[in-house]
Structures are given as C-alpha cells and as structure tokens.
Amino acid sequence: MKLSSHSKPRGCTSSALAPWRASTAGRPIRPDSGCEEAAGRRWFALNSQASSRIATAKITRLMVVDDNVDVRFAMYECLSAEGYDVAMAADGLRALELAKLVKPHAILLDLGMPALDGFSTARALRRVGALAEVPMIAVTGFFEKEHFDTARASGFDFYFQKPVEIDALLDLLRGESQD
Hints:
Layout: E1 2-5, E2 12-15, H1 35-39, E3 43-45, H2 50-56, E4 61-65, H3 69-81, E5 85-89, H4 92-102, E6 106-109, H5 118-126, E7 136-140, H6 145-154, E8 158-161, H7 166-173
Parallel strand pairs: 4-5, 4-6, 6-7, 7-8
Antiparallel strand pairs: 1-2, 3-8
C-alpha cells in the first residue's frame, strides 16, 4: 500500500506494507446502514455532532496512537508533511500521559492495542476535562458493526478503516469532508 496526498503545499508519500482494497467512495456513511454498504466505503462519522465538532475546531496539533511502528510513522510522515504538529504514542497508557502534556486538537487512535485497547483509551481520554471535546478518530483494521457500536459508545467521533484513505482523512481534518 502507498499512502499519498496530492494536496498543497507539500504533499506526502510514505510506504508501508498492508493489504489493499479499492474504495468505492471517499464520502462518509452512517454505520447503521449495514456492514454490506459499509464494506464498500472506508470511513464514516459515528454521531450527528461529529462533523460539526471537527469543522469548528482549528486543528494543527494531532496525536497518533498505534502499537504498529510502521503505521505510526507512516501517519506521522503524511500528517507532518501537511503541516500538522504530530505527537505519537505506542499504546493507550502512554497516550493518556502524552495527551495531557501536548493537548492535541484531534486524536487518531488504533483500536486493537495490547494492555489498554483503543476503546478503553478513548473512554479514559473523554474523562479528562481538557480533552473531553477533542475529536477522536478510530483508525483500525476492525470493520464490523459491533466495533462501530463500541467505538461510538467509547466516545469516538469518526471511524476509519486501515489502510486509511489519507486524502479523506486530510479533508476531514481541514473541515472539508463531505457527509
């Protein structure tokens, strides 16, 4: 898989090994439309307030949390090349500490991590006053209805399936997503 962005000013190209499946659209869907429809699309909003929350935020500082070093650094390269300040954590416990220090404007969080998974990490982050309203984006290989429901209940705003459609993610972070 090759992550790439053709947006201005600098663009981004990073490589990581991952299975690739062509997407049918970059627009978000609602997860209650069923997994068959969701399988053709790669991301969606988990609640009705998610799009307005991210559209009104001035996002310049991000935190990427993933136990896979290749994914973490690929995301770092792409996002920092677009001008974002990016902090990284390898697990949920480190993410809790780091988030309090860097105060990210949005958090990209893997779900399947050892020790403290992404669901538990999101719930804990939502209990931190300064982070309670920060947009949280699940970035995961999981793509089943039970995961959507648990992510929504854990406080996530958006759900992206890996490998991430980087242009859709960048549009979302800029408040330019189509939903």
